[in-house]
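Archive entry: two folds, one per protein. Generate the first.
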Amino acid sequence: MPRMSLDMVVLRLREERLELLLETRDRPPFAHCWQLPALRIDETRDRDLDAARHRLLAQWGLAQCYSEQVCTLGNLERDPRGWSTTLVYLCLAEPEAGAVRGCWHPLDDLPDLQLAFDHPQLIAMGLERLRIKSRYSTLPLHLLGAEFTLSEVQRAFEIILQTPMNTAAFRKRIHRADILTDTGRKRTGKQRPAILYRLENPCCVMFDQVMNGAEA
């Protein structure tokens, strides 16, 4: 029977850099290479794709993280054992999120890692989804903690989109989306106190316009 699996591109934003969750594969093929969190669909346990997705996230201690399906990919070449199909998901974790398996790798380190199967392609697909969708939605907010400042929100978008934002225009757009709630608390430090917000809507909300870098 063709193999049917889920592969998860799990990202977090920590210390102003995107990190990817990987684990070492302990068996052939591609033994000792790095691989994405994955799960083979079990028809006796997984009543549907959502059940399989939740089972995979629970196994990695990521049950509370945001996730969405990116694409379905299947062919004879991706697995040397024969035809296989995978459903690729993007998962966004908070900065302090841990994992019960694997370890986090800065994206800049990926060229030096030996990755299993077609996982470089799957990672590229997940990153492309994040970057494209960040131009017209609130998706990057799921990479922040439970509470955050507007400056931290803007910086998350800038890191993902790799371009500076006009602060006034950016904040106007975020407020128009109406997805943040003032917690009544402030973050203090070297800078002046900044209001702490939390995400009101757990879903991904679309903006009324596409962001265009510094003009956003």
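Generate the second and append.
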Amino acid sequence: MKALVRWGATLGLVGSTLLGSVFAGSFPALALSEQQIKDKLDAVPVYLVTNEKGLPLSRPLPEAQKPGGSVTGVYMSRQEAEAFIKELQTVQGKDPKMQQMVKSLQVTAVPLGVIYQQLQQSQKQPERLLFAFKPVEQEIKGAMELLRQGGQQVQQFTSVPIFAVRFSPDQGYVPIQLTADNEQLIPLFLSKQDAQGLLTKVKPKFPQADIQVIDIDGVIKTMQDKDDPWLNQVVLVPSQESREYIKTLPTEKTTPQR
């Protein structure tokens, strides 16, 4: 959870960049380590349904998919995770044997980087816990709309959509500048609305600018496999709902050194 608290300290700066200056820049090519990938993913809170002991609610995988252990849902929206608990309590609450269990369920937020790290560390474990991501329905619809506008025939979008603003379909991503230290960052948004805000800002100077739809799996694979020069400047921007949640986290206090 400390990673989310650290992100909260810079949240205001990232939010203000949508009103700041936008420009192109050149970056050195740097490969990302596993820790660097985790650090970037830690910017995004995800939500698990857990019991009173803090253990994720999970179910065994079908026999045909074993060995694989069990699977648990990872929600990108806290509200949707809470809605799932309410639905489960309504359905299962009528069963006396299930009442106590469902009453104890809660939503627990963890950094996305923790999920990534757990998957990396348990790759070779036959009975490992797998994670089934639950994208926000509104963002799925937004992603499919953009893909269809671009001429792609898509029937479904099965991953977590990521929205990136480009100068044009054949040019690079639009970087932003933090006014605090002039650092150049390339935002990858988990919300179409946030990406649209940046697109609206750059359109007057770059009429061909657009929003590219990618997915979290593609982002992670690119970070793992490529030495693309823009990767070190990438920052994942959580949805407005998650940003509001991050603001509620207590701020880490540092002990002054003597």
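Annotation attached to the second fold: The longest strand covers residues 45-50. Strands lie at 45-50, 58-60, 70-75, 106-111, 129-134, 161-166, 176-177, 184-189, 210-215, 234-237.
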